[in-house]
Design goal:
The complex is a heterodimer of chains A (about 160) and B (about 675). Chain A is mostly helical. Chain A contains 9 helices and 3 strands. Chain A has a 3-stranded mixed β-sheet. Classes of the chains: A mainly alpha (about 160), B alpha+beta (about 675). At the A-B interface, helix 2, helix 6, helix 7, helix 8 and helix 9 of A face helix 2, helix 3, helix 4, helix 5 and helix 6 of B. Chain B: This is F-box domain-containing protein.
Chain lengths: ~160, ~675
């Protein structure tokens, strides 16, 4: 068992088999630095719970493929990323910090799926980005590839 | 058998400006990506997002690394649109590095062909295989016709989403353009230089591997009129250099007039051509040379093959030979990856087709010889995706259909003219569909942008870089030359220091009293002595008169060494490699890299961009012995070492590591090394 400590001083016990999916912790364990509690100063407990949930589910990736639990895992992944933008970004940052490749992929794909068919305005709204391009610049880009800006599938709603 | 599933897709009708082609979608050829369920956020989550001003969202949105990671997952079309979100997004998405990464990433994910161009001279019409691409593609098609500006496009060929346009000018000359349909950028491929004999350019073929998007080529095949030989030249679109193959294909010897008339097929680092009569040909881009390639046999009693289709799909080369007669049963051959031979991948039986489409059947009672087919069809292309879902795109009189070899379903894609049997044979079949003008464009999403990310090199820069490389700049300590200088010193010893015991010994026993000034080497002397005496030639070389040697007061090996080696200026970057705390192998690689040899050492000719600026920056800012500078130097060495190691692991072990993983590794190693230095300092 490995003890992880979030930035709000809560400790979590995780099985070593689960936690070594994180490259960072794996390296720490290999280097023998993980004898006591591992402090994770950039991750709050809410996010850490999410990450641990993911790690526990994905504990034996290879086995799942053999026993036909792949669909189960897929379903879990789908459920897992069903969260708010903020939460998702927290998980992305945590996954990046802990260096968990699969989780990073999963979350980035989910974020990309949300942005995929959105209009520019909707994307700005969703991510709270202010437009600092001048109108001429914007028009130039649109003229460069007009076909990217039109189409029935472009969704202008923010959700 | 015909799926006319109107429930899944609404019919849409498209009549082009000429009214030639009518495309009606009676199906939905949905992609995997399309069917992936999109999960809308629950209303609770929406409230949450709006309630908090989402600190981490802003953090992510303002952090390039995370943003890039997310944007890489988006399709090209979205990216082009999202460029207008903000300046930051624009700079990320339009950067060549990002585009390279995106192209490479998508090269692995999907290999599906999204549609094809039908050539009905003089117009090109796009036929989309998927409905979702339709609106986008028809707009691309408009642009496609706008770039030719009234010129005649003779041929179009595509390679993984990039186009090569063969445009005929009004004075009969031909121009070739690379054209990126996705971005609308295009570039002229210049005529091959240094051809000073009458020639005829037969084809221009693109060789673009999405795995290596920064390095792509055009292969030009030209016929030397006097020698009746086919010659080959490769143009690198990233460096702008023509390479001419020293080999040529002799048409007198092998025949094959039709060889290279059609566009070749790029696959596996080589361009492949088939011929109806001659052996097939493979031309490797990398070493600019021919290789043999398995050829299908010509049926006995015939003098030619009847190749219906030759192309690449799903990472394999496929060939359909209809000999002896255009029958409704034929084999689809696939080439073994190791070029050991062709094997039958599918056996296709289309005997049921004429029942469904009576228009295929020849109903004339006594047709003239040239129309004496019992029924006709033409294979436009064969598509196979990763999951071995195989489809044949067939053209029948008046129809284009897609036949799924797996579930034997037929989908009608388009109605085309002409509808009559005779017209099909001498009209559409030979005019429109059969010539590889309508090669499928595969996975256009791959080629987000290559053209403006590469080759802004002017001629002057090019000459400066290629013709006068800074070869004299070297810190290399030449041991062999040093040894010669050291032997020179021994010679001086024998001349100038006759009081020394070993010199006297040499004179007594080995030279038997011969005066050394005679400079002829005694045959009886031992090998060592001979070597020493032969050292006079080194003095000659260094510009020192041998007769002066004995008169020298002192002798400096270093001076002789320098004379022998020649004077080189000290390189300005010596402080980077000397006393660098990094591991020796890092420094070795760093030195190679500074010399610009690292890439050529591993067989890459192209220069890295902005490397010199990088180095001069480092030289200016990281020369002193502050800890920061020291760490930076180590980091530089470590980074280069690890990048190279990753390259090796990809090439030799076909193992990939994520960039993040490598970066972490570098940080760890540098950390450990720096910590060691810290410890020893205290």
């Amino acid at each position: 068992m490995v003890k992880l400590k979030s930035n709000d001083d809560k400790e979590f016990e995780v099985e070593e088999a689960a936690v070594i999916q994180s490259e960072m912790i794996k390296n720490m364990i290999e280097d023998g630095c993980a004898t006591s509690v591992i402090p994770l100063p950039n991750i709050d407990s809410k996010t850490l719970i999410k990450v641990i949930e993911y790690l526990n589910k994905h504990i034996n990736m290879g086995k799942a493929a053999e026993t036909g639990e792949e669909d189960d895992l897929k379903e879990f992944d789908e459920q897992f990323v069903n969260m708010g933008w903020e939460e998702l970004f927290d998980v992305i940052m945590a996954a990046n910090y802990l260096n968990i490749h699969e989780l990073m992929e999963l979350c980035c794909q989910s974020a990309a799926d949300r942005l995929k068919n959105k209009s520019v305005r909707a994307v700005r709204e969703m991510l709270k980005i202010t437009n600092d391009l001048t109108e001429e610049e914007e028009q130039e880009i649109i003229n460069d590839a007009p076909w990217a800006f039109e189409g029935p599938e472009i969704d202008d709603t923010v959700n | 058998m015909i799926s006319n599933d109107n429930a899944t897709s609404s019919d849409s009708l498209y009549v082009d400006e000429y009214g030639v082609i009518k495309v009606s979608f009676t199906h939905c050829w949905s992609s995997e990506r399309c069917t992936k369920p999109y999960r809308p956020l629950s209303s609770k989550n929406t409230i949450e997002t709006e309630a908090s001003s989402s600190e981490s969202a802003q953090l992510i949105a303002s952090n390039n690394d995370f943003l890039i990671e997310i944007l890489l997952h988006l399709p090209t079309r979205c990216l082009l649109r999202l460029q207008t979100v903000s300046k930051q997004w624009l700079s990320i998405i339009s950067s060549p590095q990002f585009r390279c990464l995106h192209t490479r990433r998508n090269a692995r994910s999907s290999t599906s062909t999204i549609g094809l161009f039908l050539c009905q001279n003089p117009t090109f019409n796009f036929l989309s295989l998927r409905q979702e691409d339709f609106s986008a593609m028809s707009m691309m098609n408009e642009r496609f016709s706008s770039i030719r500006k009234g010129k005649i496009i003779c041929h179009v060929n595509s390679c993984n989403g990039l186009f090569c346009l063969d445009i005929k000018l009004s004075d009969g000359k031909r121009e070739f353009y690379v054209y990126n349909l996705t971005t609308g950028k295009y570039r002229l491929i210049p005529q091959p230089d240094t051809i000073d004999e009458p020639h005829l350019v037969k084809t221009m073929n693109l060789a673009f591997d999405p795995e290596k998007p920064e390095d792509y080529h055009a292969v030009c095949v030209w016929l030397s009129v006097s020698g009746n030989q086919l010659r080959f030249a490769v143009y690198s679109l990233s460096t702008g250099v023509w390479r001419h193959s020293t080999e040529c294909y002799d048409c007198n010897e092998y025949g094959g007039v039709d060889l290279c008339y059609y566009y070749g097929v790029f696959w596996n680092g080589a361009v492949h051509w088939v011929s109806q009569t001659a052996p097939f040909l493979r031309f490797e881009i990398g070493n600019c040379a021919f290789r043999s390639m398995p050829t299908t046999p010509i049926v006995e009693g015939q003098w030619h093959r009847n190749i219906e289709y030759f192309g690449e799909s799903g990472g394999h080369l496929h060939l359909i030979d209809l000999n002896p007669h255009p029958s409704m049963q034929f084999d689809i051959l696939e080439l073994e990856v190791n070029y050991s031979g062709w094997f039958v991948k599918y056996h296709v039986n289309l005997d049921f087709l004429p029942n469904l489409y009576p228009v295929m059947v020849n109903q004339e009672v006594n047709p003239p010889e040239e129309y004496a087919y019992s029924n006709v069809f033409s294979t436009i292309c064969f598509l196979e995706d990763e999951k071995d879902k195989a489809m044949l795109l067939l053209s029948l009189p008046g129809k284009i259909i897609l036949y799924n070899l797996g579930n034997r379903m037929i989908k009608e894609l388009a109605d085309v003219k002409p509808a009559s049997f005779r017209l099909f044979i001498d009209g559409a079949r030979y005019d429109g569909f059969e010539i590889p003008n309508c090669r499928c464009i595969s996975a256009i999403e791959r080629s987000i942008n290559l053209i403006y990310s590469t080759c802004n090199l002017t001629i002057r820069e090019f000459v400066a870089k290629r013709v006068f490389p800074s070869s004299k700049e070297t810190t290399k300590y030449d041991v062999a030359v040093w040894h010669k200088a050291a032997i020179g010193k021994l010679l001086w010893n024998t001349c100038a220091k006759k009081d020394k015991l070993w010199v006297q010994w040499v004179y007594c026993y080995k030279m038997e009293g011969i005066e050394i000034y005679l400079w002829d080497v005694p045959k009886k002397a031992s090998w060592v002595i001979q070597k020493i005496l032969q050292a006079t030639k080194y003095f000659h070389k260094a510009g020192i008169d041998v007769n002066d040697v004995a008169g020298m007061e002192t002798f400096s090996t270093k001076q002789l060494y320098i004379n022998l080696r020649g004077q080189f200026p000290k390189v300005h970057w010596r402080k980077l490699v000397c006393n660098n705390m990094g591991l020796p192998r890092w420094i070795f690689i760093l030195r190679l890299a500074i010399l610009g040899r690292l890439l050529s050492w591993i067989g890459i000719v192209r220069d890295p961009k902005e490397w010199n600026e990088e180095i001069s920056w480092t030289v200016t800012y990281a020369r002193e012995s502050s800890h920061k500078a020291e760490v930076y130097r180590m980091l530089l060495a470590a980074t280069i070492y690890h990048v190279r190691r990753e390259r090796n692991s990809r090439v030799f072990h076909s193992k990939r590591h994520a960039s993040v993983h490598i970066i972490r590794h570098i940080i760890q190693e540098v950390h450990v090394k720096a910590a060691m230095k810290h410890r020893t300092a205290h």
